[in-house]
Amino acid sequence: MKELENTSDHNASKRMMKAVRLHEYGGPEVLRYEDAPVPELKPGEVLVRVHAVGLNPPDWYLRDGYKSLPPEWRPQVPFPIILGTDISGIVEAVADEVEGFSIGDEVYSMVRFFSVGESSAYAEYVSVPASELALKPAGIDHIHAVGAPMSLLTAWQYLVEVGHDAPNPLQPNKHQPVPLEGKRVLINGAAGGVGHFSVQIAKLKGAHVIAVASGKNEALLRELGADEFIDYTQTPLEDVAQDLDLVLDALGGPTTGRFLRTLKRGGALFPVFPLGFEGTDEAKKLGITVSATQVRSNGAQLAELAHLLDSGTIRVVVDSTYALANARQAHERAEKGHIQGKIVLTVA
Fold first, then answer.
1. Distance between CA 123 and CA 306 in Å, rounded?
2. CA-CA-CA-CA torsion for 226, 160, 191, 257, nearest 10 degrees?
3. So what's the pLDDT on residue 1?
4. How far apart, in whole angstroms, are the C-alpha atoms of residue 262 and residue 41?
5. Residue 116: exposed, middle, or buried by beta-carbon count in 10 A (0-12, 13-18, 19+)?
6. Which of 109, 236, 289, 340 makes a 20 to 30 Å CA pair with 243?
7. DSSP SS3 for 103
8. pTM (2 decimals)?
9. What is the radius of gyration, based on Cα positions, of the chain?
10. Kind and range of the H or E element at 290?
11. Are 254 and 276 in contact (CB under 8 A)?
12. What is the rounded distance in angstroms from the CA atom of residue 304 to the CA atom of residue 299?
């Protein structure tokens, strides 16, 4: 193992770090900032000293025991567990056979998703499979870099390239992105994590982009490339959005069926959270494809996206930052909703 010279204890399993762990399911109050063992480096892995952690909906789904899922879908995890998937930091150690990463490299990753309870990002150190790691975009800091992995990969895998062959638990067929150039594309939940990246990707790929969010987000979304803006608090979007080629509903859930009537025959509806959708028969009658996928870790895609982040072609919007020790407050912020971009934890 190649480690930092000033690391006095070479047995990583005996070193301790600070982490945010769960010992039971519940609200934000169950998050405990405490000592935990530094993860032991396995073959094919890189140990990262974490500088920032990105929050994502799966964090609070896991924290509350996946109450939103049918009981048979709820994963069983052994407590205590460390939450989180998204990290940005600096390489501290590299397993012998790993190529392409060196001690001191600045890196970012979505760690081990989808493997529930194994990601362990809310911590000072994280072990990351090298295949899920990429060099951090040099032009942005750790706080902005960590806002990207899960949300940007989700948008990219929905809109551009799936990037994995994992079985799709949400539908029998593989998700297929659709060509975006010259198309009318509506993004619902456009100011959130997945939404604000989807606006930028659709615009980058040549679409006419209609962003749906509350009025306070209009200026930001137009800056990010939206051609039209609908304030859902003022206007029923079904009344004004018509003749669409694609709707990406970053919110999804039971209400996503209302978008079927806004789409052309031959159009597509991509709900990021497809559970609760009951419009399958109506979609068939209207000639509309409804498709979803489950985002998966992909270091090669993060490396590709790093160039777009580095150049400023795609921007990361940060809603708020909290110290790792204040993860509870960060989750309380998330529960209030109306997040503009991403919530980030900083690690001293």
1. 23
2. 100
3. 59
4. 51
5. middle
6. 340
7. coil
8. 0.94
9. 20
10. strand 289-290
11. yes
12. 9
Domain ranges of the chain: 2-150+297-346, 167-290
How many residues can be counted in the chain? 348
Alpha carbon distance 49, 47 (integer Å) = 7
Fold: same for 2-150+297-346 and 167-290:
no
In which residue are the tokens 């909906």 written? 57
The alpha carbon of 293 is separated from its chain's Cα centroid by a whole number of angstroms, namely 13
User: In this structure, are residues 17 and 38 in contact, taking their beta carbons and an 8 Å threshold?
Assistant: yes
Mean pLDDT, contiguous 10-residue spans, the chain (348 residues): 46 79 96 97 97 96 88 86 97 96 98 84 98 98 98 98 90 95 98 98 98 97 98 90 97 94 97 92 97 96 98 98 98 96 96
What was the pLDDT predicted at 169?
Answer: 83
Inter-residue contact 272 to 247 (CB < 8 Å): no
Over the range 190-222, which residues count as b (16 or more CB within 10 Å of their CB) and which as e?
Answer: bbbbbbbbbbbbbbbbebbbbbbbeeebbebbe
Q: Which amino acid is at 43?
A: P
Q: Which amino acid is at 53?
A: V
Residues 226, 202 contacting (CB under 8 angstroms): no
| DSSP-derived pairing of the beta strands 263-271 and 289-290 | parallel
Q: What are the C-alpha distances in Å from 310 to residues 178, 198, 303, 307?
A: 26, 17, 11, 5
- Asked if residues 215 and 233 have their Cβ atoms less than 8 Å apart, the reply is yes
Architecture of domain 2-150+297-346: Alpha-Beta Complex (3.90)
Other CB atoms within a 10 A radius of the CB of residue 294 amount to 17
Residue 235's contacts (CB-CB under 8 Å, 6 or more residues apart) are none
User: How many Å apart are CA 124 and CA 90, to the nearest integer?
Assistant: 11
The CATH code for residues 167-290 is 3.40.50.720
CA distance 315 to 172: 34
Tokens read off for 121: 């990002």
How much of the chain is in helix, strand and coil states, percent to nearest 5? 30, 25, 45
Q: What is the DSSP string of 184-211?
A: EEEEETTTSHHHHHHHHHHHHTT-EEEE
